[in-house]
Design goal:
Layout: H1 2-16, H2 18-23, H3 32-41, H4 47-81
Length: about 80
Amino acid sequence: MKKTIAMFFVLAFLLSGTPMIYAAVDCTKDNWGDQAGDWFATLGKNGLEKDQVLAARKADRVTKCTTREAEKAAKEMKKKLGF
């Protein structure tokens, strides 16, 4: 019985951090929608011009994503602090 209780507490401890892992968002990864949009944006462009467009679009997406995540974190902290 004691072993079962001890295993339960160990399992509960290990699983308690799992939601935070899934809550994190990686802003640098592109999804299929971003890739399709990049393809349309660079259609007919070659070389340096194509690379410039892709870099600018990627930078804009990362900026928007990090801003959105920072705002979410600020709201969550205000909520936890009771403001």
